[in-house]
Amino acid sequence: MGAAAMMNRIAESLFWIGRYTERAENHARLIDAFYHIREETSSGERLWIRIVQALGDPAVFETVYRTYGEREVLHYMILDPNHMNSIQSCVHQARSNLKAIRDRLPEELWDILNGFALWLKSNETDELLLDSPFLFLKRVKEWLGAFYGAAHHTMMRDRHWHMMESGRFLERAENTARLFDSVYHSILEDPKKTQFYLFSAVRAIGGADVFRRLHMDLFSVENVVSLLILNEKFPRSVQFGLGELEGQLRSLRNLESSDAAYDKAIRLVVKARAELSWLEGTDGGEASLHDNLVHCMTVIHGLGGLIGNAFFREEQGAGA
């Protein structure tokens, strides 16, 4: 394998480590949000269907599971090894990518991610998920928090760091938009519980205290959009995620002799950030809110494809 192909493979592994670990955490947060909604409402099966629609494939789900029951959906979204977006599958893919470049990263990262993957496959996991889904999802977030913390404190701020962080924040921006869009569907179906649904969304991403500091307990669609989508200082907002992605791409561009691909990606990120202004002042009465969120997710998804084609193309071609 040539030097350029090797660098592409390392970059691709780092990018997907960032994406898969962030995806696992975001899925845990979305499932947690819907689980709380389910506990407080009589929505029942409809909410479980929405989780599968948001994070999985209903057609595939229905070929394996007979009903949209709590146990079936939780297993599908969390532990099903055949579902590529289950939490277990995301962690497995992150572990596989890390294993391939293990000698390039601090050993502590492998120890944490490998331990997490083994825990997800243990008997303890099945029992904990059945007994207390809330505690199980909390443990998932704790494992991933430990991984992020170790990466933050032990990795050099070089190409490896910037590529992994690019994947992480790209994934975060898309998934925060997806989480809010999913909750917004519940609001449209049951407007009487709007404040509860909005609180569930804010709580799921750990923003309840920040929201109250900014807006007290005024849980309107406009206020929640301002935090989850538009706030440039809140770490889990779409705007913050895209801003971090832009910063990581600029750092990578500064390290490269040729920057045309990075410039194109950066321009698209800047455009996506500007387009978020369409959501400013949204009060929930506009039919375009969902359309704008879908557009936002589509643009972010396209960014992932652009980055892959621009930066990993030699390795993809070599393997064809």
From TrEMBL:
Q: Which InterPro entries does the record match to this protein?
A: ATP-dep_Glu-Cys_Ligase-2, DUF403
Q: Which Pfam families match?
A: Alpha-E (PF04168)
Question: What's the protein name?
Answer: Alpha-E domain-containing protein
Give the originating organism. Answer: Paenibacillus antri
Please list the residue ranges annotated as the DUF403 domain. 6-312
PANTHER family linked:
BLR5612 PROTEIN, SLL1039 PROTEIN
The superkingdom of the source organism is Bacteria
